[in-house]
Amino acid sequence: MSAITRKEVEHVANLARLTLTEEEVQRYTNDLNAILAFAAKLNELDTSDVPPTSHATDVHNVMRDDENRPSLPLDAVLKNAPDHEDGQFKVPAVFE
């Protein structure tokens, strides 16, 4: 893997509209190269026997079955509403 250059760090900072100090440019260059070196090290592992995965843990549907159930009575629903009209919540107009 090729190393990240100082010029590339400055280019990305410019694209992101970031103003970096000399110290930050050097630190980010070193940090990004360390990340690439770690990724290269991981590429050395033999993963031929490891099946591809999309999640680190098993994923299953945790939703309950959709079942018809009786709703609350309309009077109970509107009981604490500050204002209602014709069985609906009444709210202040947003647009005139």
Task: Note down, in words, how this protein is organized.
By secondary structure, the chain is mainly alpha-helical. The chain has a domain of 38 residues: Glu-tRNAGln amidotransferase C subunit, N-terminal domain (Histone, subunit A), CATH 1.10.20.60. Helix content is 39%, strand content 4%. It is built from 3 helices and 2 strands, in the order αααββ. It has a two-stranded antiparallel ribbon with strand order 1-2. The longest helix has 22 residues. The mean pLDDT is 91.
Properties at a glance:
Histone, subunit A; 96 residues; elongated; mainly alpha; 4% strand; two-stranded antiparallel ribbon
Short description:
By secondary structure, the protein is mainly alpha-helical. Strand 1 and strand 2 form a beta hairpin.
CATH class of the domain at 6-43: Mainly Alpha
Task: Name the CATH architecture of the domain at 6-43.
Answer: Orthogonal Bundle
Task: State the helix count.
Answer: 3
Task: Kindly report the CATH topology of the domain at 6-43.
Answer: Histone, subunit A
Arrangement of strands in the largest sheet: 1-2
DSSP strand content: under 5%
- Oligomerization category of the chains in this entry: single chain
Low-pLDDT runs: none
The residue fraction in helices comes out at 25-40%
> What's the overall geometry?
elongated
Most strands sheet: 2 strands, antiparallel
Question: Can you say what the CATH homologous superfamily of the domain at 6-43 is?
Answer: Glu-tRNAGln amidotransferase C subunit, N-terminal domain
- What is the arithmetic mean of pLDDT? 91
Any idea what the radius of gyration is?
29 Å
Count of individual beta strands = 2
- Structure class: mainly alpha
Q: Termini distance?
A: 62 Å
Secondary-structure element sequence?
A: HHHEE
